[in-house]
Amino acid sequence: MQYFPPALESLVEHFAKLPGVGVKSAQRLAFYVLSLPEEEAAAFARAITDAKAHIHTCPVCQNLTEGDGPCPICASAKRDASTVCVVADPKDVVAMERSREYQGHYHVLHGVLSPMNRVGPDDLHIRSLVERVAAGGIEEVIMATNPDTEGEATAMYLSRLLKPFQVKVTRLAYGIPVGSHLEYADDATLVRALEGRREI
Amino acid sequence: MQYFPPALESLVEHFAKLPGVGVKSAQRLAFYVLSLPEEEAAAFARAITDAKAHIHTCPVCQNLTEGDGPCPICASAKRDASTVCVVADPKDVVAMERSREYQGHYHVLHGVLSPMNRVGPDDLHIRSLVERVAAGGIEEVIMATNPDTEGEATAMYLSRLLKPFQVKVTRLAYGIPVGSHLEYADDATLVRALEGRREI
User: Fold this and answer.
1) C-beta neighbour count of A54 within 10 angstroms
2) Do B54 and A1 touch (CB under 8 A)?
3) Alpha-carbon distance A45 to A53, whole Å?
């Protein structure tokens, strides 16, 4: 027999499909939604349909944006169009922007090369990156994929791909994170930190 | 500056309000929703508004139900109306129903007495329980609140409240959970299991 009313059961099922949400959590979330004031729940539902309807990828950098034109960063006259920072994910753009240091443009791959998960070059926004570089006007491409195996491999693959275009390809520096302790740094990080040491 | 497009930011904020969901998880959930096919996302949004619109509490037992009348359990002619099982939460009804053993009715308190969280008798569906018992026809009230301090206190409070009505008030048995190991049972459970021992 049906334990919850169908409308509640359906809501639980939708929550349970979310990544990292099990059936018990989904029930808790569904009960929470039931406890919301009418207009709050309506706003939540609207946020879902609105996000789905209005969010698109920027035709230039493939980052998420609203509307059809280029994203605010690509459209901004204040940003340096000669530098392109290549990241795996829109969340990485957020991390870079938070630092308030980078003033160039981006290119969002929407993933990294991963033979294990059957993600090849055609599954990422690589062709559009090559086309941007081939079109000229770009002097430096900064690889800012994650410093793990797949991120490294993706950066290496792209740097080889971009070589014919006479563009400078750089990689974010490795080293000890600011504010951390040497004793907790792993060997690979320490090796990279030594290799990358600078005169002070 | 705005890091995500506003529609995405708004969706993240809604997810972040859910219990147990932090900002990072909320971002992950929002990106998941963006990755859904159009109709899936629309169905999710609809599930929220539908649940909110159609789910009500049963006027008799206060369990969640669809529509305005009594819930299917209260309306069923097959269930024994002379026994009422008092639970704290609609989820507890689900747990009881799953056992397929109980054939009586329910009464859902929607919480337990908790002076720490300022939950008093008037915040729970206690008055309606007393009215049901006072109306007659009920022979036994089974207290099935959780076996913790607040659940115990609530059961004790209710049993005293129902005493004048000459109704049998019982409590679910305590003991070793079926399939568990004695060595992992806590002292309080073992004491209760000994107290409640039966001849075989």
Assistant:
1) 14
2) no
3) 13
